[in-house]
Amino acid sequence: MKVLVVGGGGREHALCWKIAQSPLVETLYCAPGNPGIAELAECVHIGADEIDALCDFAKAEAVDLTVVGPEVPLTMGIVDTFQAAGLDIFGPNQAAAQIEGSKGFSKDLMARYNIPTAAYRSFTEHAAAVAYIKEQGAPIVVKADGLAAGKGVIVAMNEAQALAAVDDIMLDKVFGSAGASVVIEEFMDGEEASFFAFTDGRNILPLASSQDHKRVYDNDEGPNTGGMGAYSPAPVVTAELHDVIVETIVKPTIAGMAADGCPYSGILYVGLMIKNGRPRVVEFNARFGDPEAQPLLMRMKSDIVPVLLACARGELQQNSIEWHDKAAVCVVMASGGYPSPFAKGLAISGLDAAAQIDDLMVFHAGTVFKDGQVVNNGGRVLGVTGLGTTVKVAIDKAYAGVAAINWPEVHYRKDIGARALNRS
Ligand code: AMP
Ligand code: GLY
Q1: What superfamily would CATH give domain 327-423?
Q2: Model pLDDT, residue 36
Q3: 150 near 224, Cβ under 8 Å?
């Protein structure tokens, strides 16, 4: 069959890597792809949010399955457009993608179905938001309602920070229309983990556990990023906790969406805060996590393509996925300065040497070809992902890959996986 992956980051490289191994796949396209993906798939020069052009391409090439990586085309309705054209596509439709696209939507859903999360209120009036913050006090969390490229959440440790965040979002409109409404919620303390489940709208198929490192510097210091590294499995998610997450969060969410006439299919990403064995939802996303997809897919033993197709067709019956009994650790190599502005176009050395290392994959995220060389072109540039019999072996493997690669001002954390090591 012919498969098209939409996107061009580390998550999409990992998806292409896994999909390309399926005996069912004859041709793999990726739009727009990147230099790493170009080794596995035919890259198509169409942007991930050019929905009509992607649909025309899929029709012209008779693509059998399209797999959407990022959230923006999902919230723009790529799934609706493809389905209207009679094409199979993996991901939620526009209405269901609001679970990520609107914090107010997901908070209201959780309230309706008693899904554990932080207490909250939504506001469209600045004065009312200010009054609520003064009444509640700090710490408190202020969130722009819409998509803000991962930057629309301010965890305020004091009242002044919270009030400044409301001013920035509602008066100065630093996130544009994403900030027309704000959600103000209770600060949750605990350890974060990511949980993923495939679903066809009715049935669910949970994945192995994983966890990412969101802060830019070691010891979880500095600003939040899209993720500076990740590992799988995540020891914080014990077998018992896994069942609690499925029963109290994933099942009621999928059943609730269906009951509301807005069935959710694709992969559900649950961002969790865990305290004393009790999981609560921080956020939902409508897609695979990035970088979490990289270690997860390296550990996946089963063919992923039948699962993706079953979700797209509403035919998910399989109730387990086989995993390699190994740990995987992904270290993100980022441009110096990220998540603030950074220099682009710097030549990356050592990719060939890293490619020689066994049980190691260098997934490309923000790279591009320039004058025949691979150069950095985004904040997160590479996801260097190692597989090992233990977490320690996987960490050493990933950092052996990192040591082989270099460019000016490269930045990466040196403590990826340390939390898992401390628990094992
Ligand atoms: P979100 O975009 O909702 O995932 O938020 C980004 C990050 O902000 C999360 O990964 C958490 O680290 C933090 N965060 C969000 N909501 C809360 C909360 N209610 N309490 C504590 N931290 C939070
Ligand atoms: N790693 C966080 C995310 O994918 O949103």
Answers
A1: Phosphoribosylglycinamide synthetase, C-terminal domain (3.90.600.10)
A2: 98
A3: yes
